[in-house]
Structures are given as structure tokens and as C-alpha cells.
Design goal:
alpha+beta; Cytochrome Bc1 Complex, Chain A, domain 1; five-stranded mixed sheet; 15 helices
């Protein structure tokens, strides 16, 4: 059965959900995805939503962590919470025969989150340890500094000083205000019929609080063309770069952006950036670039590592490559290679049930039809070089690069 969009009635509300029935394996996969609830809503406490996800992975307040995990393990059930910038999800994967136990455990977690001070301190200490560990990860630090520069965004893990300020009251308030009926879009599939899926979802959604869904804020790209340099004891330069990309997720030309950035920087050794910066000039160990388009932001970013003495030459070459690409566009050979790869690899991106369900959810999330990805492939197959190059040349804003650099002082 193909993946489809359905709905379930809970009280006086009709809740949309993504569904696919598949009997290839006796497994059921379920995601409770909460829109408008990710780390972008941390407020004055960066890291808050990350801590909520970690706390929900510490069992329920009813059973405690040890008994809860024992129940999961003895039934071979995987249950975990995870947060992103725009959404929050709680996922469960179970054998069909253990589905009732899995649903009861998920329901228990939703009704009785483990709001215990000792549990919170444990997840706070783990997060503080992770932040400390990442302090010497120069890729992470350069990426973090770039997000701070272009969108004034803190890291999704938060900062040490804000993590220490988070209390149980903050966790409880977030759960009450964001993990609500109005935000949830379930995704369920596997060895389960649609009627059974509806019964499961009704029982789960019934325990969620009601509330008011918040709108996602639109992040504005930093208006000033600037760079941030951090000096560390390093033997190479870590260069992260970004520029605005004026295209919305709902734009009908978004499929052209997929091809454009595949050619420019996301296709590995076949990309313009890799061929010019690494292969021809030997100025980087690796280099890539891609577009990022979501409901909250749209931009182009990339990164490279190079020797400290080649730092300025590498940056200049990146700018020249992107400038030449915008000026002249792609070649017929590049377009053919891009089409061959994108169209040929599509079956690999939809092999598994979670992949298909995830693709369908993304289509729904961005306001498209459930089969939007197939429509996109049809458009890519028909894309003409002249139309692609007209699109590339119209996006001169990606030349307005900002940089986050970690390097060694005095070199």
C-alpha cells in the first residue's frame, strides 16, 4: 500500500496523520511529530528543548528509568525522543506482537514524564560534558560560530551557563505548551491496518494536553557581510561559509535549487568546488556546499579544511569558483551527471519504511502533496540547461559570503 495522508477524529478535532501499511516485516514504526516546537522556541534558555528530549529518554515518572528500560528491552521495543530546530518527535519501533506493550509504554511516558530533580541533574551533567567535549572539536566550533554570525543562533545543545539555569519548572512548562494536540502530526506504518492505526492514535492523542500552537518565527540572515575568526592551537584552518539564498520552501523552482547545488558543492568529487579547490589546486582536504531551505530560514553554506598557510588562497578560490558558476552557469555535462545521479539514486532514498514515511511527512510539512518528491523528479528529468542557468544566474546573492574561521594566530 502506498504512503498516504489520512486523519483521525479525537474529540472535536480532526488530526492529520501519515500512514503506510506494509506487511514485508512484522514491525510497526510510529512517530509523534510535534510541529512548531523545536529548539527555536528555547527562548532565553538555549538548550532547554534539547534537555527535554534527553529527560524523556530517562523513563517515566511512574516506572522510573530502570523498570521502564527493562520493559523496553524485554519486549525489544525502541522508544526515544529527539529535537530539531523546528520540531520535536517521540518515536517507537516494535514487533507487531509487542505493539500493545509499546503503545502502553509510550502512553505512560506522555502521561508521566520523569520530572525528577535527580534525573534533570543527570541529563544536565551529561549535556555539560558534551559541551566540554565539543570545545576542542573545531568543526563543531566553526559551525556554531557561523550560525551565531548569520542568524544569531545559539547551538542546539545550548551553552554551559544557560544549561545550569534550567529547572524542572521550565521543562514542565515546555511540555505543557508545546507537546500538545494542536502541534502533533503522527506518522505510522508497517504491519498495521488503517483502522487499527486510528485506534492507536486516538488513545495516544487523548492523553496529550490541549493548547495553542505557536507560529514559527522567520529568521533573518545577517545583513552585514562579515567574518568571525577564532584563534586556537590547530595545525589547519577550519573555514565555514554561508550566504543568503532568496528562495522559499514553497517556491515552484525549488527543484532547480536541488540541481544547482548538487553541481556546485553537494556531489562529492564531481562538484565544482571539490574539482577546483581540491583536485586541481590542492588547497583543501575536503570542501562542500549545499542549500538549506526550511520554514524558518533559507541559505547556502559550505565548509573546507586547509593548511594554515593556504587559508587566504583557499577562500579566494572558493569565491572565484562560486562567482564563475553564477556568471556562466552549469555545463551540459554537469546537468546530465546531476540528473543521472539524482534520478538513479531515488530508489535508495525510499528503500525502507522509515525513509518513505519521513519523505511523506516532509512533503506534508512543507505544504506539498504526499507524492511531491516524485513530481520533483519528473521536473528534474525534463529540466533544460537554459532554464537551469537562468535560475543560477538569478541568484547572485550567494556571492555575499560570510565566514567563520578557526585558525592559528600569527600563521
Amino acid at each position: 500500500m502506498a504512503t498516504c495522508l489520512s486523519s483521525v477524529q479525537v474529540g472535536n478535532k480532526s488530526i492529520p496523520f501519515i500512514f503506510e501499511e506494509s506487511h514485508q516485516l512484522p514491525i510497526v514504526h510510529l512517530d509523534l511529530v510535534f510541529q512548531n516546537s523545536g529548539s527555536i522556541f528555547d527562548g532565553d534558555l538555549p538548550g532547554l528543548v534539547h534537555l527535554v528530549s534527553k529527560l524523556l529518554n530517562e523513563g517515566s515518572g511512574k516506572s522510573g528509568i530502570d523498570k521502564f528500560v527493562q520493559k523496553l528491552d524485554s519486549n525489544a521495543i525502541k522508544l526515544f525522543a529527539i529535537n530539531g530546530y523546528e520540531s520535536f518527535s517521540i518515536s517507537i519501533t516494535t514487533l507487531k506482537e509487542k505493539l500493545p506493550q509499546g503503545i502502553e509504554l509510550l502512553k505512560e511516558l506522555l502521561e508521566y514524564p520523569n520530572l525528577d530533580k535527580k534525573v534533570l541533574e543527570k541529563v544536565k551533567n551529561r549535556t555539560l560534558s558534551s559541551i566540554l567535549k565539543f570545545s576542542d572539536d573545531f568543526d563543531y566550533q566553526a559551525s556554531k560560530n557561523l550560525q551565531k554570525l548569520i542568524f544569531n543562533l545559539p547551538p542546539i545543545f545550548g551553552e554551559s551557563e544557560t544549561i545550569r539555569k534550567i529547572e524542572l519548572a521550565h521543562i514542565e512548562k515546555y511540555i505543557r505548551n508545546y507537546l500538545i494536540v494542536e502541534n502533533v502530526v503522527p506518522v505510522i506504518g508497517g504491519d498495521v491496518g488503517e483502522d487499527e492505526a486510528k485506534e492507536i492514535l486516538q488513545s495516544l492523542i487523548a492523553v496529550l494536553p490541549n493548547g495553542k500552537s505557536r507560529e514559527l518565527p522567520k529568521l533573518e540572515f545577517a545583513p552585514k557581510k562579515d567574518r568571525i575568526i577564532e584563534y586556537r592551537d590547530t595545525k589547519q584552518s577550519y573555514i565555514y561559509f554561508a550566504s543568503p539564498f532568496n528562495l522559499q520552501y514553497s517556491d515552484e523552482d525549488i527543484y532547480k535549487a536541488k540541481v544547482m547545488f548538487f553541481i556546485l558543492g553537494s556531489s562529492g568529487f564531481g562538484s565544482r568546488l571539490m574539482e577546483e579547490v581540491r583536485v586541481k589546486h590542492g588547497l583543501a582536504y575536503s570542501v562542500s556546499g549545499n542549500r538549506h531551505i526550511s520554514k524558518t530560514r533559507s541559505y547556502f553554506s559550505g565548509h573546507l579544511q586547509t593548511s594554515i598557510e593556504n587559508q587566504d588562497r583557499a577562500i579566494e578560490l572558493v569565491e572565484n569558483v562560486i562567482g564563475e558558476f553564477i556568471k556562466k552557469g552549469a555545463t551540459a555535462e554537469e546537468l546530465k551527471s546531476a540528473k543521472d545521479f539524482i534520478l538513479g539514486s531515488e530508489p535508495l532514498r525510499n528503500e525502507t519504511l522509515p525513509q518513505r514515511l519521513g519523505q511523506a511527512f516532509n512533503n506534508y510539512y512543507y505544504g506539498h502533496s504526499i507524492n511531491h518528491h516524485k513530481e520533483t523528479l519528473e521536473k528534474i528529468a525534463k529540466l533544460k540547461l537554459s532554464d537551469l542557468n537562468r535560475f543560477i544566474k538569478s541568484h547572485k546573492e550567494i556571492l555575499e559570503l560570510r565566514y567563520s574561521i578557526i585558525t592559528q594566530k600569527g600563521k
